[in-house]
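Render DNA repair exonuclease SbcCD nuclease subunit (SbcD) in 3D.
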Amino acid sequence: MLSFIHAGDVHLGNPFTGLNQNLSPDFQGNVQLATFTALDRLVEFAVDQEVDLVLFPGDLYHGSDNSPLIQERLTKALTQLDQAGIWSAISFGNHDFQQGQQVHPAWPDRVLVFGPAVETKTITTASGLKVAISGFSYADRQHRQSALPDFPVKQAGVDYHLGMYHGVVGQDGEKYAAFSLPDMVAKGYDYWALGHIHVRQILHRNPVVAYSGNLQGLNRNEDGEKGFFLVSDQDGQGLLPEFYPVAPVLWQRIQMRNCPDLATLQGQLNAYHWEQPTLVILELTGQVGPDIEAAARFGTLEESLQASRKSQSDYWPVKAQITTKALSQERPALPADVDLQAAINQVVQPASVGQWLSDQAPTFIRDYFYSKEGQADLAGRIYQDLVAGGQDED
């Protein structure tokens, strides 16, 4: 039975964004070492579970910085895997594309590194299984061309064929090696390990085409558990992924309703049982006390909560805001000769939609807004917002 780990977007050495300079010293160590700790946990798991290989489909490094610390920690991790008889397959993505052109210390024997051209490498596992792995690395940051046409169909004479691809679903010519999901499935591979999107999601189930997300959330938009997929073929059902969290620092959104005053809010945060070091994005709903409103208005709410945090507590308030439904404002009348709907329809086209969508948007959202139905829906919502004052509750 084949088993392997799919770990996209490790981003070794990433400096977290969205933190202010007042970060508590007892949290700084956790944050600075978070990506390294997550990788160490992956390696420990891989060795304990005796997996056959680990796939790193792009952005293993956060950038072009090849500092001694980053290189030392990665070399140590790959060496541990090699000594345990575990293969590692590495490709470089948009963040670390320059790593493919830099000189590295000698890789351990069981490390496969993919270059800018699509290539297929074959290994034999300890149990005698033959596994083909096809992949490529970015030659530049945006890689505005699908690499799928250069991927071969499933190789004959192997037990499994795996694909590694760092990119997004989209139209050929868009940035980040935009690819067609049906074209990917048509290659006949047993599993596709995707990278680039930091949201864990399965795009196709037979065979599985999936993003594992990243090992560690890097900013407040990447909240929730982060980790990797353990993929195995049990009972001949095909290669199926199972998620395992390893992030040492959690970004978490917390909602609190009807806080009467700042002291109550501070007490609730300090009394909460945090499972692990947690960076908190706090949303206050309902009725809030006047001192909370004043602190939010003057921009001191976060600092107040940080100052009242108990020493060595496993949380740190990153963002605090009062969330209320804004009343619609009266809008100026449109000129009588303006066909607003026609103008909106002219703007809402596939090319513009592709520019508006975030690269981190889940693929089903991207696919929807690329469709005629999705574009019509978007155009209608824009019209409703401009003309009717944004009263659409959907």
